[in-house]
Structures are given as C-alpha cells and as structure tokens.
Amino acid sequence: MTTLVDRTGTLSGRLWQASEAIYNSIPVEGFLHVKGRTEDYKGALQFIIDACRPYAADKVDLADFIRTTGNDVEAMWAELLEIMRDIQNEPLRLLIKKFVEDARLTAAYKRAPAAMQMHHPFVGGLLEHTLNVARAARALIPLYPQLNADLLLAGIFLHDIGKTAELSAATAIHYTDRGQLVGHIVIAAVWIQEKAALVAEETGEPIPPRTINLLQHLVLSHHGVHEYGSPKLPAIPEAFALHHLDNLDAKVWMTTNAVDSDTDPATSFTSYLSQLETRVYKHSQDLTDSQPHLPTE
Amino acid sequence: MTTLVDRTGTLSGRLWQASEAIYNSIPVEGFLHVKGRTEDYKGALQFIIDACRPYAADKVDLADFIRTTGNDVEAMWAELLEIMRDIQNEPLRLLIKKFVEDARLTAAYKRAPAAMQMHHPFVGGLLEHTLNVARAARALIPLYPQLNADLLLAGIFLHDIGKTAELSAATAIHYTDRGQLVGHIVIAAVWIQEKAALVAEETGEPIPPRTINLLQHLVLSHHGVHEYGSPKLPAIPEAFALHHLDNLDAKVWMTTNAVDSDTDPATSFTSYLSQLETRVYKHSQDLTDSQPHLPTE
Amino acid sequence: MTTLVDRTGTLSGRLWQASEAIYNSIPVEGFLHVKGRTEDYKGALQFIIDACRPYAADKVDLADFIRTTGNDVEAMWAELLEIMRDIQNEPLRLLIKKFVEDARLTAAYKRAPAAMQMHHPFVGGLLEHTLNVARAARALIPLYPQLNADLLLAGIFLHDIGKTAELSAATAIHYTDRGQLVGHIVIAAVWIQEKAALVAEETGEPIPPRTINLLQHLVLSHHGVHEYGSPKLPAIPEAFALHHLDNLDAKVWMTTNAVDSDTDPATSFTSYLSQLETRVYKHSQDLTDSQPHLPTE
Amino acid sequence: MTTLVDRTGTLSGRLWQASEAIYNSIPVEGFLHVKGRTEDYKGALQFIIDACRPYAADKVDLADFIRTTGNDVEAMWAELLEIMRDIQNEPLRLLIKKFVEDARLTAAYKRAPAAMQMHHPFVGGLLEHTLNVARAARALIPLYPQLNADLLLAGIFLHDIGKTAELSAATAIHYTDRGQLVGHIVIAAVWIQEKAALVAEETGEPIPPRTINLLQHLVLSHHGVHEYGSPKLPAIPEAFALHHLDNLDAKVWMTTNAVDSDTDPATSFTSYLSQLETRVYKHSQDLTDSQPHLPTE
Amino acid sequence: MTTLVDRTGTLSGRLWQASEAIYNSIPVEGFLHVKGRTEDYKGALQFIIDACRPYAADKVDLADFIRTTGNDVEAMWAELLEIMRDIQNEPLRLLIKKFVEDARLTAAYKRAPAAMQMHHPFVGGLLEHTLNVARAARALIPLYPQLNADLLLAGIFLHDIGKTAELSAATAIHYTDRGQLVGHIVIAAVWIQEKAALVAEETGEPIPPRTINLLQHLVLSHHGVHEYGSPKLPAIPEAFALHHLDNLDAKVWMTTNAVDSDTDPATSFTSYLSQLETRVYKHSQDLTDSQPHLPTE
Amino acid sequence: MTTLVDRTGTLSGRLWQASEAIYNSIPVEGFLHVKGRTEDYKGALQFIIDACRPYAADKVDLADFIRTTGNDVEAMWAELLEIMRDIQNEPLRLLIKKFVEDARLTAAYKRAPAAMQMHHPFVGGLLEHTLNVARAARALIPLYPQLNADLLLAGIFLHDIGKTAELSAATAIHYTDRGQLVGHIVIAAVWIQEKAALVAEETGEPIPPRTINLLQHLVLSHHGVHEYGSPKLPAIPEAFALHHLDNLDAKVWMTTNAVDSDTDPATSFTSYLSQLETRVYKHSQDLTDSQPHLPTE
What whole-number distance in Å separates Cα of residue B98 and Cα of residue B41? Predict the structure, then answer.
C-alpha cells in the first residue's frame, strides 16, 4: 500500500502485482506516472495501480504536486528587500547584502515553506510569512522608538532563513537530515557567522562582535520558550518584538486556515487543533448570530 | 519598625516611643506627617521618628507619593477614544459608549496603574498601556484584513479595564479584596454583561449574544495560557492579536525599564528578572562595542 | 457517512443515494425517522439508510435518545433545596432564592448534564452531582466548625450552575458557543452579579460586596488549579472544601463508572483512562482474590 | 552563633567565649541550661550566653519546648480505635490490630507530628489529623455505598503512619535519616507487609494478597500525583476518597492556621503561602464588610 | 474478534460460531490450538477460526510464543553473580546472598522481561539489562573512587528486581495486579526489608539500619524524577550513578532497537517514538552519506 | 559597599571616603591593592578600606584570586589527547586536530571552568570534567559495540568547548556577553562549522555533511531536555551516551562537593541544593551508623 500525493490531497494506492523490478524503478525523490482505477475501500476511495513508471521531473509542473503561495513571489521578494533598505547600520546592511547576493540561498528563500504543517506550509510560505512580519515591524517601529529598528528588521529577515535547509520541498514538504539533527534555529546562527566572515574578508572590516551576538540572539530566542527549541530566552526588547510579531502572524494564519479548511456547516467550531489546545470559533467575522443555535460538537 | 514610602522610594522608619494612642492615630489609608532624623543602620539609612501625626489627604499632592505617567492623561484619553471611533459595528459602539459615559469608571481608567510591579506600575499606567496597544492595533489592522477590526479594538479597550477595580492606587498601589478574590479578567467579563444590559434597556435592542460572547472571550483569553489566569484559551484570530500586542507592549516596557533602572555601569546585563527568567542585556541600542569587555556578573 | 445516536449507543449510517434535497431536509437539531437495514461492515454493524424524513420533536420521548439519571429529578431537587434551607445568612438566602425563582434556570438545572464525558454526563447529571456534594458538605460541616457553612452551601449550589448554559442536551450533549467561548465558571460569576442586582433592586438592600466577592471566588477557584480553567486559586478554607468534595464525587463516579462499563471479564483493570492517567482496578469491592490470577492487559 | 528554641519561638544566641570544652559538652539531642542576657541586635533581640551546661532530659517538661496538640491525646486515640471497629473484614481487622498492639508504634503514633511545617506540625498532630480524616470518612460512607468502607477506614489509619519514623519530635521536629532517604509512604508500605506476615504466622491464615495490594496502593497513592512523592496514582474509588479527605483536612488546617497566625490588622490577606501559591483571605467567616476598605499589601 | 499472539507477532482472529461452551473452554492463561484459514481483511490478514481447543502448557515450547533474549541465560547469571562478588561489605554480601538463595526468585530473575515495551521487553530482559548496568559500573568504579562501590553494585542487582513480580511473562508479557497497584520500585523496597530480617534472624546480627536505608533509597530514587514514579529523588552520588547507568543502557537499547526494527529503506529517520519525543536517526554508525539525499518523512 | 574576592572567599568592604577620583581609578577587570582593617559588622567581618590603588595584573599570581583544579593541567590535556587518538575516522581526526592546533583555543580549554557554580566551577574545570567523561566513555565503549565510538569521543571533546567563550575567568568567573546571548552550545556548533571549513580548505576534501550534522547534533542535544537549553533532543544512541556520562560526572561532583563543603557535624544531610531539589546525605561512604542518631535539620 502506498500513498499518492498531489496538491489537491492524498489518496491511498494499492499495487497488487508489485515485483521487485517495479519497486526498484520507483525514484526516491521523483515522480510516477500511474495508471489504474479508483475503488471504494473502507468508506474511502482507493486507487488500484495497474501500472506505473517513473516520470521525468522536468516535464512536471511542480505546482500540480505541492501547494504554493497565492502571491507573486518576485513582488514579495522585492518588497521584503525594500523594507530591509530601511536599515541604517552599515555592518548590518553589509551582512544582509551577503545573504541576498547568495544566489542559491535566495532561490531557496523564495521557494521554501515556513513549516511542514504548522503555518504557511506551502511553497513560498517562508517568504510570505517573513514579509508579513517585516510589514508589521515597519508599521510598529514608529510607535516604539525604544526599539533598535535596524536590529529588529535584520532579525526578521534572518529568523526563519534556516528553514531553507531544514525543509525540503522538492516533491513534497519534509524535513532534511540536517533539519532534524540541527534545526533551522542553529543553522541560521551558523550562517550569520559565515556571512560575517565573508564581509570581514571583503571589506577588511570585521562586523562588530556585539552585532553578531545580538543578531544570533534574536534568531536563537525567537521561539520565546525553551520548550519550542529556543536555546536562549529573549533578553532584549527587540527579541520580544520579533517573538510576538512572528507568533501573531503564525497564529492568525493557523486560526484563519482552520476556519477556511472547515467543511462542516452544521458546527460553529472547527475540530480540535492540538497545537492551539482548542477548537477555533468560525464566526468571529460576523458578530450577529443570524442562524439558529448550532451545536459545537 | 515601619516603612516610609513616597514616590522617590522607601525608607525604614523606627518609632522608639510607640504608644497605643500613637498607633491608633495612624490612618489606615492616609498620610502621616513625621518628624525625626536619619541614622545609618545596617549599612542603610533609617529614619528615627520622634513624632508623627495624621495629615489631611486633601492637603497632599498625591504625585509626591506615588509614581505617575509622564504623559498627558487627558491627551492619551482623547487619543484612545479617537481610535475607538474606528469601530463601525453599532452594538459594539453603543457598548463602548456605555463604558465611556460611566464617569466614575472613566476617572478610574485615567488613574489606574497597569500592574503592581510587572509593567506600567504607576498612576496612569493602565491608560498608557492600553493606548499603546490600541495604536499598535490600528497600525496593523490594514495588514491583516482577516481580522475583525471592530472586535479587536473593542477588546483592547476592555482587556485590562478590570484593573480599575483590581488595584487601588489611593496612597500606594495594592490589590483590593475583589482584585485578589475575583481578578480583573472576570471583573471585566461581568461589566461587559452589565453594560450590555444597560444598552438593551435604553435602546430596546439587545446586544447580540454572539457579540457579548466574543468580547468576553477576548478578555478572558488575553493572558494566552491558563497558568497566567486565563480561564479560556484564544480561539479566534482576534484573541491571538490582542494577546500578542498586549504582551509586546508589556515586554518592551519591562526590558526597557530594567535597563533604565539599572545603575551599575560595570556590567552589561541587568540583575535577574524572575518574570522573564533571564537578565536583560543593556546595549541592544548600540551595536558597536566601544567599551572594553565587561563582565556580566 | 453519518452517525445514528440514541441512548443505547451509536451506529454508523450510510445513505447511498444522498441528494441535496434529502440533505437539506435534515434538521440541525431535531430527529430523523430512518428506514433501512444493518450490514456487517469492517467488523461492525452499519446501518444502510434507504429513506429518511424529519420527525417532529414533540412526538419523541427524549429519554429514548439521551442517557438520563436513574434518580427522581423532582425528589433530588426538593432535597437540594432542603439542604440550602440550612443557610442562615440573609443575603445569601435571598440570592439563592433569586436563582430558584428563575423558572427557566430551574428547568435547565434539573435537566443539564454535569459534563460531556468526564462525570455524570447525562440528563439530570448536574443536579445529581450537586446534590451529592451538598449532602457530603452537610455531613462534614459539624466536623469542621472553622468553615463558614452558609458560604460553602451556597457555593456548592452555584459552582456548576453555569453548565446549564455551557452544555446543550437538546438531542445530544454538546457545548454551546457560549460554553466554548466563555465557560461555565465565568457564566456563573456573571449570574451571581446579576441576581445580586435583582435582590438589591427588590429589597433596596444591596448584597454586601464581600459576600459577592467570596461567592464568585468559590465558583472561580473550584477547579483548584489554573490548568483546569480556574482563573483564581482557592484562598479560603471554604474554597478548598468545595474543591475537594466536588472532586471526590466526580472521581468516585468516574472510577465506578469505568468499572461498571467494563465488559472484559478476563482482565482485572479497565482500559486506560486518560483523564485519570491510569487504568482502574476492578476488584476493590472484593478484598479476597477468589479467581485465578488474571492478566492486566 | 546558635539558635535557642522553645515552644514560644526562636531566639538568636551568641556565645563569645566558646571553648572546645564547652562545645563538646553540648548534647546532640538534649537540653541546655543557659545563663546570660538579651541585647538588641540588628533590630531583634539576641541572647548573649554567659554560661551553659547540659540539662537532664528527664527534668524537662517537653511541652515547654515543642508545640503540642490542644486536644486530649488518649481521647483522640480511643475515638480513632472506635471508628476502626466499624471494619467488618476479618483480615483487615487482624492487620490493624497488629499495628495497635505494637506498643512502641502506638506510643509514637500518639506523639508524632503530621509534618514539619505543612499542616498539624506539632506533637500529637498525626493523631489529630488522622482522627479528623477518619471522622470525615465515617460521615461520608453512608452517602457513598460504592466505596469499600473497610478498605477506606484501614487506609486512613495507615496512610501517614510512616511519619512516626519519618519525623523525630524529641526536642524539635526534624526529619530522620530514614525519613529523608525512604519517606513515610514507603515506610508504611513496608510495615503493612511485616504486620501481614505476623498475622499469617499467628493465625496460620495469610492475609489475602489482594488485601495487601489494595492497602499498600491506598498508602502509596494518597498524595494524588507523582510530583508530591506518590509512586502510584489512585486507581480505585477508595484511593480518591482518601486523597481528597486527607487534603481537605490539611488545607482547612493550613488556611485557618495562616489566618490565626496573622498579626497584621491592617490587611485583609495573609502573607503569601508558597505551598498554596496564594495569600489567604482573612474574612471568609464574616460575610459583611463592616470595616473601611483595607489594602491587601 | 480476538488476537492471536506468538513470538513472530500478532494476528486478528475471528470465530464466527462462538458458543458459550467454546468461550468457557478458553483458558485464562494458557494456550489454544486453533484450526482455520487466513483471509485478507481491511488490507491485513485475518485468521478465521473454524475450531479451537485448549492445549496443555507442558507440551508447548514457550519460546514459540514469547520473545526471548538471544544470550545464554545461565552464563549471564553467572557473570552477574561474579560481579557481585566484588562487594566487600559483609552485611551487603549477606543480604544479596539471601536474594540469590531464594530459588523461586532466582528462577523469576532469569526469566523476567525488563519492561512491557520500553526496553528489553522479552524473556531474560531483566537479567540482560541488569548485567549490562553491572558491567558498566564495574568499568567505571576505578574512575570514581568517591563512589561507594559496594553500595552501587548491590543497588544495581536490586534496582529492577521487583519486575519479577510486577510483570508476568507466562504466555505473554503483562502487568500483574501487584505490579499495577504497588509497582516494582516499592516491591523491591519491601523485599530488602524482608531479606534483611532473614539475615538478622540467621546471623543474630542485624543489617545496620543505615545500610537498609541507603539500599532502599537507591531503588526508590533510580527513576531520577518523581514523574516516572520515584517517591524519592537521588540524594547520594551512588544514586545518580545508578540512575545514569540504568538510563544509558535503556536508551541505547531503545534507539538501537528502533533502528533495527525499522523497515523503510527510503527514510533516514524512524517513526516518532513518544517515549523519546523524537524520531531516531538511522545512520549514526555510518558517518559518510553515500546515498542520495533521502526525505525524513 | 563593595565585595572583596579572592580564592579563599569573599569579604564585604566599605570605603567611607569614596571620591569620584578614587572610583574612576578602579580598573574594570583588574586588581586592587587595599589597605585598611577588619571590623565586626552585623555578625560578620567587614573590611574598612582606608586606601586603595590599582595593582598591575602581571605582578599578580592569579591562583591567589580564583579557585583552580588540583590536578596537573598539562598531564590532563595530554591524557585527553591520548584518548582522542582512538578516533579512527579520518574526517573526525582532522576536525579535532584543527581544534587542537588552535593555540588560543587550546590555552583557553586548559584554563576555562566548567560552570559558574553548578559543577567544576574553577580554573581547569572544563578540562578536568571533559577528561573524566572521556575516560568513562573509553571504559564503556567495549561494552557497547552498538555505539559509534569515534563519534562519541569527538562529541565529548567538543560538548562543552563553547564554555571557553561563554565564561571568563580573568579575575573571577563570570558570563561573557556572548555566553549570555548565544551560549556555549551554539558557540560550539558554530566552531564545528568553521573548523570543518578550514579542513576542507586545507585538504581539498570536505568533511562529509553527515559527519558535521551528527557532531553538531551531539553538542546541541547534550543537555538532554529543552528546559536546560538544548534546541534538539537526543536522536542517536551516541547522544544519549554523551548526555548520561556528562551528567553522571557532573552529579557525582555536585553531591561529593556538597558533602565536602558541609561544615556542620551535627547533621547527616547538607543544606538544600536547589539544582538537585534535595539535600544530600553525608554518610553514603560509611554504611554503618556508629554515631548516635542525629537530626537532619
């Protein structure tokens, strides 16, 4: 029994005449062309595979297989860079520039999801989420002059950048070995050190150690608590700002998505979301209860 | 031994000839005029009280005894109401209006601290904090069209309003009996019900039950987790927005205040803050370490 | 696929020729008359619906659809009121009286379950549970003269009264919107305030604020810990008495029910109960092990 | 510097001319006769010891040195045994009898405190607390016929009996080595096994293994959660009954004692009790607030 | 529906013509001879039982039904005793000797599993695990002269000995009543007391109380934290040594077993292990990644 | 008031005639020569500073000011390198070599403490602790052939190496800014990446990514749980081995040190250690209680 996946969902598949030859022909990360028919099985559709063969990846439109942001990736990227241009501090500017000039990284940044499932779990999700947080920061910075705006903006750009190496979205979203063993938080901390070394090499002027410490601190502490994998707790106002704006965007996405994905018109709450430890109420947009009283469960 | 308190700090006092008559003359919530001298005692100053007598409260400038916001209270109040005028939903407008028209409550709102110690612990702190959160919400609302802006704004106005009854700031900040036994979260939930009843009475049109439910939910869930006294966890996007903007403002205040209050130039971290489970770094404003390396402890 | 529910249990149903017309004819909270046959499906019975039509609720004996207390509801109600007559404190008497005179509330009190699943999850369960706790309190009050008996008894009467609005037991037990968003604990706190206002209005004598504070405190703290939704922790002896007597009754029900519901004679423990974090031993009534040694799992 | 202790409290003592000879003359668990004078030191009284010599323990009235129950110990013991006579099950009766016939243990039972600080921390406290729980159980047993009354009563008699070996109250209350390393819960479980062996030896009839298992289970699980040192969680209704009646008695003592010990008439709450995670409200006995509004802190 | 179990795994069985006579003929802890055929059912094999009859336990090779250690049990036992001969302290030697001379216990020790599922869940697992820990201790003792080697070795021998009574491995591994109600930790503490009494009886010389306290402390604290059922936390260096060596052996087994049991060559991580709160990486033995990049999930 | 510190302890100092000139003359990290006299103050000695002047650091014997390992540092270092020579895997050998060839790092490794207070908090403590763990691993590796010995040994060498940058022991042990903001765990992960780049540069052969991932995973997960700052939980057997051997050494040091530091002969337990959540028993080395029974507290 196997699972067929494309962007519309998943379907159980069954190949009754599986030979070793067929099994070996299945690519580890690639595509299959399958032929067969659906049957009702255990109250759900099942796809009976009569034949299958590998399918060249370059003939495939990836968007058919994996969910993708609905926004224009290049426009989002341009806007994000535009916001980063607000950074006045020269070492921070040079450091961000090193990341942006890394073509492989930039490509990955535009493509990576923000998570496997939690929030923005689709191609382009990392960029969409980061842009949201950057916009929010730009809107709040005038209200909080106590914050070091340069540090906050740079921290936002980098906070989830390690997800480009933590997650793979080649044919489906999954964790890489490095993602599972090291994680995006530490990956980003390492990259900051590497890019800082590049800047020092090129300019002859090292990034001040305090700048590196603070930037790594922002990345390391942005999950807010140890339990969610932050090795350090926020110890500067900018770290709290990053943590709360990051969370706000993630939680708005999660609750909104839960409501949008819900298909049962007869209930006013979604099913239980373990990561929120609650069900989500579906009618906060509409303050007036025009429908008859509906049960929750 | 007693403790003398005014806005500049506290001082141990000692009255060697305390008689029952003197003791009984001390007002429970009032002011004393004391006469005496300071002595060095155990490495700290101590005030030896030679004589004391009650002092009429109306002759006192309260600002001499209790820390007060540095901002113009009436200007802040006006701006907060101005932001609330963005609310379009009629029942919500009427409900907020009922709170604003309650003169006793309005006076208390302008005067209450936001906490005993945690954040904005001074006269006017509730208003200052609430205005900050309202400004932040107004700045973010255009970025998050998924949010019900009316509900969020009304929730911000009301989220800490129960502190006007939870805390007393007559001569010093302390909890009231009702604050300790019931708490500001439930106090606010009760008031929403009461004001909604007033609206219904006056207009003949009840506030829709769903509106009341959602508004109470915002207040009840705004601490985000049960451990901090929220009887319900956030279950709508607006509740997460309120929770994170509220926290962001509180944490920026706490970290900034910790740095501002620190008086030891020889360290780069403040002392340990138990509520943040960390020390706060004092130099996030200045990315370049121009000083020699300083020890943390 | 749907689920057919009556008091004897649940049964999967399947309607192969579901049309939109049929779907729309299904009442949101009502009853269906179904015609069809059972089939064995996946090792369980399944009901194949050949036809269905709405069934008038007034022709239905609700007791056929929803589990109900085995005790006489009116007798339980009379006994509960009898116990409440022990209350000497006049304001408390008047307050309780206001609740009892509320005919809609009284009807709901007699009918509400005490929970969806945890304990006494059946029609009449709230009353049965509250009466048990009241009886226990009456038995213990002579042993604990330190306790304010009036306060404890009134607190018991009101501690779960919010469940009449938190849960609906129209055709099955489920949470209401208000139950999910606000919860029975805060609902009861609000009602206490409302009924106190009624008393003040009628008698011209307000319920003393301390009485209201203490009564609300009892309700708010009766879950004992924040994690179970209490916004305040017990701070008076009566709150601990209520918490422990409430829990004792719930836990005795849960363990006894787990044993009674167990149908496997070959084991000496029930299956794992997540809310108790343990299996329940089935033979504590019989101290002598007359059977051969039986495995637990 | 040393500490002088008697039942009225503690006092710092200072012996300026301490020689090794004097030091060696001080008994490890015994009494000293000291001669000297008090001085004011650091705002507190200090006793300057001019001379001291050991004092024979048999000339001492222990009650002068250690707090003691206000009740008649023999009367309490008689009543406890009277309640135990309700036990019908023969093996349980024989087992309890073995404990009662152990003269050394009985003497210790009448003398032991129930804790160092938590509740009933005085000579006779174990007996006073156990009797309270037994009385409560006797009052509730008619209301809960589901409970195995014999098992519950025997469990109550034994639940804290290990404290006779966990705590020493020779000249002050402190933990014994065995108390710290093994603890009263396991000490009691061991004793049940030993006394059961004695019964079997004498009667030729072993106590049924299930009886021993259940009795040990009651003792092991009576703290209710692992965090408080219970190696097993309650898995029978009787274990929950024991846990809640035990806690109810302890918490009523703790809150009442906190109020009784409070000496500050100007506050309505006691100081913070870390074991309850709250302050205790001092006026739950008096529902009417006749005093002016008083601050909490 | 029933479950057929032997050492190769489990299989669902179904007996369509179950009569009460057949049901009653099934032994509670015994073996069945079944006749029938397999069918594909819900994508898995199911065994349709046409007939079954009890099968005499003495004709059965138990190794056909229950997983067993791959090592020579007698050789392991001899090596364990050999290590215990390093104990120099006479009372400890006599105490261990009493356990070894208990033939019933020794037989159970050689046979018991170390757990139902966690680690070494097979016949002989207790011995295999204990021997591993004893070997590790013997290797480390020369490096840690601060440790009381005698105490540590005796503690290792006894730390899980209660599992001989906690688990039954007659025909499958399951908890006994005593295991569920009392648990192996307290069972061992009781046995230490009983064997110490035997030594005292025979030699006329009691085991020093401190020796018993320390040995029981080692057993009681070896789970390291209350949450895992230890009523006492480690309070001596030997207790920490036992705890960490015990855990090291268990965790190496669990991770290695997870990798060995994994059958999916297309992933580099095993499925999630709830007891470790992580997936296990399968390639730590092979530092060079010769395969193409494989997805985790 | 200031604090005078040297290796023998701390002493309160007081400078009555402090002028700004004197204050400014005090070096931030340096030494002072003070002149004055001791006085008894609050029951403790106090040093009254009559005069003070900076003292050149190069004239100071640091060992007079800061506690230092009692072992020969060069001998320990040689033995640690000797153990590392067991590593067979070429990339791992080259990587470790890069760390060893870094003269500044090596000097720091020999000097760094292992902690501020927890365990081995003295100059040379990092080396002493790491050597202990390495010895333990070498002793256990033959017993656990499932473990990748090369990976484990390299992980031990590196697990706490970041403490050379986390802590400063110039004149006293304190955290550096980088230690507080980033922490030794992530510092080490960054260094592994940097040294790996150096190896690749020199040899033209990159360290295999899997090797880097696994080594970083060992360092990141060695605290075992998120709460203690590990961003990843152990997911390979070697990570559990490192975690438990590291802890075993730390806990044996902590308990032994607590006993050795205890100066009260009249108690059998040390004072409470918050990091162990218990007192430590002082007599586990001596199984026979030859002293009279002593109180714990």
Answer: 54
